[in-house]
Each structure stands twice: as structure tokens, then as C-alpha cells.
Amino acid sequence: MTPIGRHVAEFSEPGSTAVPWADVDRVLRESEMFWLSTVRRDGRPHVAPLPAMWLDGKLHFCTGAHEQKARNIESNPQCVLTTGTNTYRSGLDVIVEGTVAPVGDEPTLTRLARMWLDKLDWPFEVVDGQFRDPGTEDHRAIVLALTPAKVLAFAKAPYSQTRYTF
């Protein structure tokens, strides 16, 4: 499903235009690293870098069930994933806000494991609805999917903000 985009003139340079969804989609597909923002049970923020894969309109990532981000998501599944560039005058930054849910079906996990291998040379086995590092029993990761509610795209030079809703 293609989201509805709206150029946000208030936060854009005069004469700038909306970022096409195709450009946002490309950044989400091609980016290797994202920043995950979650909220701890006591309300404090938590941010962590991690790889994510854009598949079927969702951003997928994995984490150990014992890690802080997994515990945060367990109590509050709303989070944000961001990616883009660290340059001021070029590139496209993308922010994806939404709700996270676990992924456990083997066909999706198998596709995602293949994406991790192809994109990052990071092999995973699919075992019992989770990822596992090959040759280990205890290095497992739950896989989560962020379903976007809102996506913000920030183009630079000219500066432009586009808000996408689903």
C-alpha cells in the first residue's frame, strides 16, 4: 500500500517539494543501520543502533529477548526507527513511527534471514520462530516488525519535510 504524502511547508524551504515515496522506499530498502528509540518502563528513553530490513511494508529487526529494547517493547510496543545520513547539506533522512509486533512465521523469517545474509553477510538460522546464530544453541534473537503509522522524510538542499500516513 502506498502511503499518503503531504509536503510540510512550515518546515521546508520555499520552493521545495514533497519527497517522492519511491525515494523514501529506496532509503528504507538500502539502509543498513537504523536507530531504534523505545521507552523504558519508568519513562526514560532508550536508543540503540541496529540493522533493519524493509519487507512487505514493515521494518524488521532482531534482538535478544533479555536486551533492554526487547523489555521496553514488551511494555510499550510503540517505537521509532530512523535512518539517513550524517551530513547537513545532502541526503535523505527517514523517521518511521509505529507499533512493533513479533514475527514468528517460518516463511517470513526465512526471507528475512536471507536478506540479512545478502545485505550484511550476517547468517541466521530459523529455529522455533526465532533467529539463531549458526552452530550455537544459546545465541537466539526474537524478530520484530515495526508497522508504520507515520513516516517523515527530510530532504536536504533544498530542505523539505514530507509526512506520510498510512
TrEMBL record:
Which Pfam families does this chain map to?
A: PNPOx_N (PF01243)
Identify the residues that the record assigns to the Pyridoxamine 5'-phosphate oxidase N-terminal domain, covering every copy. Answer: 24-113
**Protein keywords:** Oxidoreductase
Under InterPro entries, the record lists: F420H2_bilvrd_red/Heme_oxyg, Pyridox_Oxase_N, Split_barrel_FMN-bd
Q: What is this protein called?
A: Pyridoxamine-phosphate oxidase
